[in-house]
Specification:
The complex is a heterodimer of chains A (272) and B (255). Chain A has 272 residues and is mainly α. Chain A has one domain: MetI-like (MetI-like fold), CATH 1.10.3720.10. Chain A is 77% helix and 0% strand. In chain A, helix 8 crosses helix 10 and helix 10 runs antiparallel to helix 13. By secondary structure, chain B is of the alpha/beta class. Helices cover 42% and strands 23% of the residues of chain B. The N and C termini of chain B lie far apart (70 Å). About 2% of the residues of chain B have low confidence. Classes of the chains: A mainly alpha (272), B alpha/beta (255). Chains A and B meet through helix 12 of A and helix 3 and strand 6 of B.
């Protein structure tokens, strides 16, 4: 816990050499992306209706997925962090499973549930609900993959809160809902912000579950990553440009989050 | 953890890492291996022909990769090492003209309409007209281009296009959507449907007025890792009686 400046400077020389060499493996490709992008025509390319359509769709799909993740994520995180739910560990594991599940498996699983020949597909279809190969299906696939990031972030946020404030409010006679609204949620704001950013970043990049469950149709289910995949085989210029675009969005989110996702950073800032 | 153990672990890790990288980089340079990039619709036929070739040529090994021709062409343009490229159309073969020798046509296939087995349709036009959702390949994919040309000849394209379920990246993607029952109809090559799909899908021939046929071409790379193997396999593919018989057994017509 008492890391002094002296201790930090004493790393054996081999460690920074390996670390920096390793880092270059990650940075070189990103630099290559920026270098191979044809910037002179970038503006015109970005005004291509096909690209605008993918951008618009990606935005709609990701924002909706984040909204759903928030509505589901808070109750789930609250149950996991604040109650003695039976089988809590198992439930947490299941709720977070998509974080480690290959997205393509998620997509095929969604088909087996909501596809035409899936478990629920025919019933849904009989009441006029079509999920596979629709924008709603793309939102479902993206939510499936990204919502666990919201649950995990909010649960961690709830655990960091000072529970004594909630106890005090309860002692003063505040109903449970009032405590959540007036005490928990305001304090949780930074975690909610981080959850939104992480979930949005994951949602924006989703590929495997979407292409398996929703297919790839421009304007309906072809989000930015799917558009990049298609242009990779036809129009490399626009594949590079769209990739740079997603890279910039990711960097922006990373910078916005830097205080929260670097472990220990918060505490150190608090204590010095 | 004692310092020595840590060092041993680090060293082992680094060795493993560099060996793995080097291994991956070098594995394609085996001089007895013929590397073939082939259109998705050739999956079974080229796999069988490769097995026959290996049986005929002791010591030779054939490695195959199958995907939509446009995907393979893009890989070639970006530096994929290959000995032989088999494309499902001229467009994708032309795209890689700078990296291949003159292509040789070696097979053709007619197009068919497929539906789930439960269909009530009696012919191809009826299957397309009655379909709510049609599986198509993207326009740059050979199967997508051929399907459009064939449906245009039938005057059905304008009605079919808005019913597209998804634009697939290979003809096999179209097949899968219909086999899974997600699409009511799709246009594929006759050679993509075989006995394994009996009972799952139904196949409808297009009317005789449709002249569109898929043309498969093969070309050796202009700087292949295994020049002798590349030429030898191409010769085998286009002239050997057993290779021709395998193609015909899978439903292709050979010139």
């Amino acid at each position: 816990m008492t890391n002094t400046g002296k201790g930090e400077g004493a790393a054996p020389i081999i460690l920074p050499i390996i670390a920096i060499t390793g880092l270059s493996l990650f940075l070189l490709p990103l630099a290559g992306l920026a270098l191979r992008t044809r910037w002179s025509t970038a503006f015109e390319q970005l005004r291509d209706p096909a690209i605008l359509e993918a951008l618009r769709l990606s935005f709609i799909v990701s924002v909706t997925a984040v909204a759903i993740a928030l509505c589901y994520g808070f109750p789930m995180a609250y149950l996991l962090a604040r109650t003695n739910l039976p089988f809590r560990r198992l439930i947490r594991g299941l709720a977070l499973l998509p974080m480690v599940l290959p997205p393509i498996v998620g997509g095929i699983a969604l088909l087996s549930a909501f596809g035409r020949n899936g478990i629920l597909g025919p019933a849904l279809e009989s009441i006029g609900i079509h999920l596979p190969y629709t924008t709603a299906g793309a939102i479902l696939a993206v939510t499936f993959v990204s919502a666990p990031f919201m649950v995990a972030t909010l649960e961690a946020g709830l655990r960091d809160l000072d529970e004594r404030l909630e106890s005090a409010a309860a002692t003063l006679g505040a109903p449970r809902w009032t405590i959540i609204r007036r005490v928990v949620l305001p304090q949780l704001a930074p975690a909610i912000g981080a959850g939104i950013a992480l979930t949005f970043a994951r949602a924006l990049g989703e590929f495997g579950a979407t292409i398996a469950f929703a297919g790839s149709l421009p304007g309906r289910t072809q989000t930015l990553p799917l558009a990049i995949y298609q242009s990779l085989h036809t129009n490399l210029e626009s594949a590079f440009l769209l990739s740079v675009l997603l890279l910039v969005v990711s960097l922006t989110i990373l910078i916005a989050l830097r205080a929260r996702i670097v472990p220990g950073n918060n505490q150190r800032n608090d204590r010095t | 953890m004692p310092a020595r153990t840590l060092r041993t672990h680090l060293a082992a890790l680094c060795t493993l890492f560099t060996t793995a990288l080097a291994g991956c980089g070098a594995s394609s340079s085996n001089e007895h291996t013929v590397t073939i990039l082939a259109a998705a619709s050739l999956t079974e036929s080229i796999t069988d022909i490769a097995a026959a070739y290996e049986a005929d040529h002791p010591g030779a090994r054939v490695r195959t990769a199958f995907a939509g021709s446009q995907i393979l062409a893009a890989q070639i343009l970006e530096g994929a090492r290959f000995d032989l490229f088999c494309s499902a159309d001229d467009n994708q073969m032309d795209r890689v003209g700078g990296f291949t020798n003159a292509p040789i046509p070696f097979a053709t296939s007619r197009l068919v309409v497929i539906t789930p087995a439960s269909t009530t349709a009696v012919d191809a036009a009826g299957a397309l007209a009655g379909a709510e959702r049609i599986a198509l390949a993207a326009p740059e994919v050979p199967a997508g281009r051929y399907a459009r040309a064939a449906l245009e000849q039938l005057g059905l394209w304008d009605a079919a296009r808005p019913k597209a379920l998804s634009l697939e990246d290979s003809v096999r993607g179209v097949l899968t959507r219909v086999v899974m029952g997600e699409a009511d109809a799709g246009v594929v090559y006759a050679t993509d449907t075989d006995s394994t799909h009996a009972g799952t899908i139904r196949v409808f021939e297009l009317p005789g007025s449709v002249t569109v046929r898929a043309h498969f071409l093969a070309a050796t790379g202009s700087a292949p890792p295994n020049p002798a193997g590349a030429d030898d396999f191409l010769t085998y593919l286009v002239t050997d009686a057993s290779a021709q018989a395998i193609l015909r057994a899978h439903g292709f017509d050979t010139p």
